Amino acid sequence: MKLGEKMKIPGFKLLGLQLPEKTTNKNGKSMVDGGNLWQKFEEGQYVRQIPNKMEDKIYAVYFDYEGDHSQPFSYFIGCKVLSQTVTPQELQSLEVPEQHYLKIVAKGKMPDCMVGSWEHIWRSEIKRAYGFDFEVYDERSKNWNDAEVDIFVSTG
Fold first, then answer.
1. Lowest CB count within 10 Å: 15, 20, 125, 151, which one?
2. How confident is the model over 35-64, as pLDDT tens digits?
3. What is the DSSP secondary structure assignment for residue 27, as one 8-state letter?
4. DSSP string, 93-117
């Protein structure tokens, strides 16, 4: 895991799938819930159904936190689209507002590198805003034996 620079990212719109209920990091529940949503997203080939995609990257977003990382939160998987895109019936949309972020790069074997990176973030002194945090999956994340994923943690 590598800590990157702090940056301000303009807001953007995503289309994809959202967990029907909030999840939590307690007892590994979010790993199961998130894994099930990823499976549904992949098996349903939702990435192909998303209109007006701006890029081929997939975003996994953590938001609507009820407190810190130990409290319930919402989870969404989707792709960035043009802001005026109408949401098809089988998909949901998510507006990620402009925020300040700290970029962290997770590198290694999946999903271990992601688990380890998030555990490090939770234990760190990063001044988190608990706004909209997200991971970006692109070409670098396709090799699960040597993946690289950008994590953007919202900061105050």
1. 125
2. 999 999 999 999 999 999 999 999 999 999
3. G
4. EEEEPPEEEEEEEEEESTTHHHHHH
